[in-house]
C-alpha cells in the first residue's frame, strides 16, 4: 500500500516556510525540500502552494527575496526571513502549541 501524503492543515504552510528560512536563505525548491527533510518525508509542499505563499509572505514583509544563482548554476530567487518574519514565526509557534494542546485534550478526553 502506498504511503498517503497528508494534506497540510490550513494556515500551517506560512509557519513551515518561515521555519525553513529561520537559519539560511533558500530558493523555492530548497524550501520545499527543507520542509520535507525536517518532517522526515511526511510533508510534501507542492509548487502550486509554495510560490503563492512565498509571494504572500513577501508582501506581508515577513520574508525578502533577492536574485541569486542556485547550486546547479541557474538563476533563482532566494528568500530570507526578516525581523518581522522572526517575530511572526515566534507568534505562530505559540499559537500552534495552544491549538495542538487543545486538540490533544479533546482527542484524549482529558
Q: Explain this structure to me?
A:
The structure is a single chain. The chain has helices at 13-20, 28-38, 47-59, 83-108, and strands at residues 26-27, 63-69, 75-81. It has a 3-stranded antiparallel beta sheet with strand order 1-3-2. α1 (13-20) crosses α2 (28-38). It is of the alpha+beta class.
Which key phrases capture this entry?
alpha+beta; single chain; 110 residues; Arc Repressor Mutant, subunit A; globular
Overall mean pLDDT stands at 92
CATH architectural grouping: Orthogonal Bundle
Tell me the major beta sheet: 3 strands, antiparallel
Number of strands: 3
Helix content: 40-55%
**Pairing-aware structural class of the strands and helices?**
alpha+beta
Distance between the termini: 34 Å
* Strand proportion: 5-15%
Order of helices and strands: HEHHEEH
> How many discrete domains?
1
Physical arrangement of strands within the biggest beta sheet: 1-3-2
Amino acid at each position: 500500500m502506498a504511503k498517503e501524503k497528508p494534506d497540510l492543515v490550513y494556515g500551517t504552510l506560512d509557519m513551515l516556510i518561515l521555519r525553513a528560512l529561520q537559519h539560511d536563505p533558500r530558493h523555492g525548491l530548497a524550501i520545499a525540500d527543507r520542509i520535507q527533510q525536517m518532517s522526515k518525508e511526511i510533508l510534501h509542499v507542492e509548487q502550486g502552494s509554495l510560490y503563492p505563499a512565498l509571494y504572500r509572505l513577501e508582501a506581508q514583509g515577513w520574508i525578502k527575496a533577492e536574485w541569486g544563482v542556485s547550486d546547479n548554476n541557474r538563476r533563482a530567487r532566494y528568500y530570507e526571513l526578516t525581523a518581522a518574519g522572526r517575530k511572526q514565526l515566534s507568534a505562530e509557534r505559540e499559537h500552534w502549541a495552544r491549538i495542538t494542546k487543545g486538540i490533544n485534550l479533546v482527542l484524549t478526553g482529558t
